[in-house]
Design brief:
Distance between the termini of chain A: 28 Å
Largest sheet of chain A: 5 strands, parallel
Radius of gyration of chain A: 25 Å
CATH topology of the largest domain in chain A: Rossmann fold
Number of strands of chain A: 10
Shape of chain A: globular
Mean pLDDT of chain A: 91
Strand order of the largest sheet of chain A: 2-3-1-4-5
Low-confidence stretches of chain A: none
CATH class of the largest domain in chain A: Alpha Beta
CATH architecture of the largest domain in chain A: 3-Layer(aba) Sandwich
Helix content of chain A: 40-55%
CATH superfamily of the largest domain in chain A: P-loop containing nucleotide triphosphate hydrolases
Largest interface: A-B, 52 and 51 residues
Oligomer: homodimer
Chain lengths: 498, 498
């Protein structure tokens, strides 16, 4: 999930200034209206050390009436706090109706810092997650507007920022030994952050991930999300009977702030035929061996393929299975659901097809149809596809908990390449069946799909079931990447087993 | 929780026959309507061995069209099932839209039998709870009607039934070695069942506890609950915009099936003055010692007092604290919330007053006002008090997880005794202040309160924060029971610590 976030985003200063000129007075107005409507608001800032939580809070309160908010810096517990239940310090710091409270780090400290530093054991971590979920649910059920921001920077950027802080005597104190340890062991810490986000990203209190390398970008995104959340709360307060709108994650309505993972994919990557043939042979032979081992060790394997029409799913699956023992794998092509399938939960048909221990199930198109075609074509409601991210993550977690290797491939090509392939298919009598009117219609919705895919990739790429984006303009390159990824994942898994 | 269930309930045969004559055809009609409306229904039967799950399923399907339902007996996993993720066997057994599936024990097997038998470790139990919660939420979000029944009998009754089964060759095979072990170690197994119910008693899939000693009573209650659930589902299907009604736990609208814990309390229990004085002196001295130990061991203690007006809360608290070091305890009297309190979450003021480690906090009236006076006087909405049971259990769980001793006392008197005490207060100039118009008004709502208190006692008595019902007609008896209970709980806790 976090590794899919595009941290190269930048915000032009002129645009930033212009937008902030509108947003600041607007936020001030909304604060006053919330006060009148007696709506309490909590804004939580979490994120990596030196990601700029303090600076972002400063930027945000700039627009606020100081009589109406409080900022709580959350540090180590005091002696008094240590002698109370963990959440007591936060219960006693709730904003009353009409006020805004901002938290510079928060109750999540226990499942991040304390966990990383080994201050609390895993049993206590489990308890803390339960307590946090109850806490946030109780508050939001009680009418609290709860906004959670996660400020994201990468290891290198963090190191750079720490170095800069350490270089000056005035700021060196801000970098602790633990900060440096977390930078050193960034991957492990990132995994904890990711687990935290996945487990506490609820309908009632979703996480908003803020790309925080560029400060202006981060500030603007936070402003837009706070403004939208307060507007929504005020609308709801005005019309309580109305169906509640779930607050979407990472997608401010503002297009300039939206995700762009796909647009960063390097589609010039390629491979010549010679190299391809050599590698293919080697990888297929290796996969054949691994398949046997996986069977003996009773490891179930789930491989999902999604991608643009003509993105190369079929070709990749063919190369993948070419030399595998057919008794040990199944390819499940996913078409529109039939009547029986439609009469069940949308995940039912996929659950039925899940491999047993030692077997490999390959899905040509998958359960992700829910958040792509069903979302875009309106085959399900907004609430349905919005909650599908969680449901899919839960299903894949269940698989992984039982020991399955779960990989998902997104076969990426650009629009021009797709046009070339469509035409080639039409001109080739053997391949004409592969291209239909529907393919051309889908193509017209490219931008809508791109937005949906970006959101899908971020929200459902997990440590236990990652998305692998396959640069697909060159088919040779793409097929080898798929094979190599599967081989690596199986080797890694078998190594863990032994 | 389970220990508060009244298992002495009986259903007269004539009443039963008359009621079933109405209910059976009604259920048949509802089944047909659900089929037309394409509503899928799952009915889960859990409960102790020999509690009559099979017999109850047989009774229920008697009214159903056999073409529209399937019964799944859930036994040990097959080899095929073992090779799939745990929930796979249930995903593949979902009813399609319009059909009913009945489960004779279910996915809860893993957190009950398998857990008790030590087949899976505690980490897997945690995973199973997560998976179960996701599973039920996904299904109900998808439109499934999910009914969960827990058939409750006690250790003695179970033993009797096992014996009867074992006495005949034809039925002896139905009692397994594990069944007998669970009877032997009933308390431990009951705790697991209670934990299961508390952790999976959700808004979307609440548990219904069925007092199953009397078969007729159980059958009727199950019928009524199924009928009400299907009627609700059909109403909702007819009016999707309508606010969803949460399904209440254990409270079929039918009065004859409701809870009656309070009516079983033996109010003739009493104690003479002589004995009282002796015991009081001894217990107060012991409590003084324990208070010191608790302080040194840094154990927080939370004691809540609720009860009828003039039920003796004040007198009991006075005797409890008389010889305790005042630096180590606080008595928090709970009145109507003031303006600041009203501007916060209803639990906020109680969180603030929670004791720090080593201290004792006594509450004269408590957070349970939410599910008593606020419920009855309409100071909060139905949804609010209904979800308060969960919220309160969560708060007390948080306290207990941090090591607190949590006890709640319900001071029970009967209506005549209250009248006597009210009059005595009015006639005594020193006590006139204790009695107001409001007390007389509340008295008129005795029956409503009784219903609310019964529901509260069952839904919020937990192993980590039990309710203690104090037979209060005799003040001497009541005060000693309170003191003795506190002394016992502290001694038990201190023993665990050392």
């Amino acid at each position: 999930m976090l590794e899919k976030i595009d941290l190269t985003k930048k915000m032009d200063k002129d645009i930033f200034d212009r937008r902030m000129k509108e947003l600041e007075p607007k936020l001030g107005r909304l604060q006053r209206e919330c006060r009148e409507r007696k709506i309490p608001v909590m804004i939580v800032f979490e994120g990596y050390g030196a990601s700029g939580k303090g600076a972002q809070i400063a930027a945000l309160i700039h627009a606020l009436d100081p009589r109406g908010f409080t900022v709580y810096p959350v540090k180590n517990e005091t002696e008094e706090e240590k002698m109370h239940p963990y959440l007591w310090r936060f219960w006693t710091k709730l904003p009353e109706q009409g006020r805004i409270a901002l938290y510079d780090s928060s109750w999540y400290r226990r499942v991040l810092n304390d966990r990383f530093d080994g201050k609390i054991g895993e049993a206590k971590v489990e308890e803390a997650f339960d307590s946090i979920l109850s806490f946030e649910r109780q508050l939001t059920d009680g009418g609290m507007v709860l906004l959670k921001f996660f400020l994201d920077i990468d290891k290198k950027e963090q190191k750079k920022r720490f170095k800069k802080l350490l270089d000056s005597e005035d700021t060196a104190w801000r970098v602790s030994r633990q900060d440096l340890e977390r930078n050193e062991d960034f991957e492990r810490y990132q995994e904890m952050n990711e687990e935290m986000i996945l487990r506490t990203d609820t309908d009632y209190a979703p996480w908003n991930i803020i790309e925080a390398v560029d400060r202006r970008f981060a500030t603007l995104k936070i402003y837009v999300l706070v403004v939208e959340a307060l507007e929504q709360a005020l609308r709801r307060a005005g019309a309580p009977a109305e169906e509640e709108e779930p607050v979407p994650l990472h997608t401010p309505s503002d297009a300039s702030l939206q995700e762009s993972t796909l647009s960063k994919v390097d589609l010039t990557l390629s491979m010549d035929k010679e190299t391809y043939k050599k590698k293919l042979k080697k990888l297929q032979a290796r996969l054949e061996e691994l398949h046997g081992e996986v069977y003996r060790k009773r490891i179930p394997v789930v491989l999902g393929f999604e991608g643009w029409d003509a993105g190369g799913k079929g070709g990749a699956i063919k190369r993948l299975t070419e030399r595998m023992d057919p008794r040990g794998y199944v390819v499940n092509p996913t078409a529109s659901p039939n009547d029986i399938e439609r009469a069940h939960h949308y995940l039912w048909r996929f659950w039925r097809a899940m491999p047993k221990a030692g077997h490999i199930a390959i899905f040509d198109r998958t359960w992700y149809g829910r958040v792509m075609v069903e979302r875009i074509e309106g085959f399900c409601t907004t609430r349905e596809w919005q909650r599908a991210y969680r449901e899919i993550n839960e299903m894949e977690r269940d698989l992984a908990q039982e020991g399955a290797v779960v990989l998902k491939f997104w076969m990426q090509i650009d629009k021009d390449e797709q046009a070339r392939r469509f035409k080639a298919r039409q001109e080739n009598p053997d391949k004409q069946w592969k291209i239909t009117e529907e393919d051309w219609r889908n193509r017209e919705k490219w931008e809508q799909y791109e937005e949906a895919v970006n959101e899908m990739l971020i929200r459902t790429s997990t440590s236990y079931a990652p998305w692998v984006i396959v640069e697909g303009n060159c088919k040779y390159y793409a097929r080898i990447k798929v094979l190599q990824t599967v081989v690596d994942a199986l080797e890694k898994r078998l190594k863990e087993e032994s």
